[in-house]
Amino acid sequence: MLYIVIGFLWTSILLYLLLGGADFGAGIIELFTGKKDRQQTRKTLYKAIGPIWEANHMWLIIAIVILFVGFPVIYSTMSIYLHIPLTIMLLGIVARGTAFSFRNYDAIKDDMQMVYNRIFAISSFITPLFLGIVAGSAVSGQIDLSSHDFLNAYIFSWFSWFSFSVGLFTVAICGFLAAVYLIGETKIKEEQKQFRKMAVSMNIAAVICGGLVFLSARLSNIPVYTWIFGNSIGITAVIAATISLILLWYLMMQGKTIILRFLAGFQIAMILLSVTINHYPNIVILKTGHLSLVELRGHDKTIEALGTALLLGSVFILPALFYLIYSFQKRKDSSYNPDH
């Protein structure tokens, strides 16, 4: 049952990156869209993420609950030593959701719409940035459990070039996912062309930020290269991600839309697998030691109950979620007018 729980944890992180990440990416695209096209882009973004944007955070909640219930030592360590970036990330989620609701459902359209738009776009950038910072800090070996002063315990545990480079890479990945997903959300050729250009830009940004991750890891003596290329699974995942990226760009130029989403999702899954497989089950790498999902699991009865709850919950939640997506996809042709 332990490995079922770990499987749900990994899957929930992946789905949050794919779905919640694309959700954040929509705001990132809006942030970097020119003023001339921004209004039309907002209409398309609303049609794409409006129906299910709140549901995407379900995966983050599941991951947090799994850690809290099944791995309390790991949860408490991350919550204490990474509480600053975690708090900023959560504030970004709240600010983004609030701005999205007010700008689309406010009964009065006035100058405040500009404020809501800026909050939505900026928080869409900040949230995945600090999500990546948390992820990078967790495996960077920066967390020092023996620290007794504020700076070493709560600032230098996450404030580093490596953590910020992982954060920027996460932002670029989110923007890339959103751009690829949005190509199929509009029938306007000019807008599809715009999203393709944005996908190219975000792809280039992801490559540059990925290079920064490797460079900063080397300077900080973090074995990222070994994690990825140190075993056959990691190498296979990298090759699969590369092939899927080439196929994605080929099909994009052929005008395909639906299959692009699966290829983009598969690529991100392979990247996550290549990074995590070599140091599994160590989910947190400390300055001295590590936190293992196997060694620091909760009581066996707790893990058994948690695994059972996750299995039963998926039977009810997943069909309902798929139906939610399906039902709103059926209404995709209905237009949205922000002036109503």
TrEMBL record:
It is a multi-pass membrane protein. Its main location: membrane. Pfam families: Cyt_bd_oxida_II. The chain crosses the membrane at residues 6-32, 53-74, 80-99, 119-139, 159-183, 195-215, 227-251, 258-277, 305-326. It is found in: Cell membrane. Keywords: Cell membrane, Membrane, Transmembrane, Transmembrane helix. Belongs to the cytochrome ubiquinol oxidase subunit 2 family. This is Cytochrome d ubiquinol oxidase subunit II. It comes from Mucilaginibacter gynuensis.
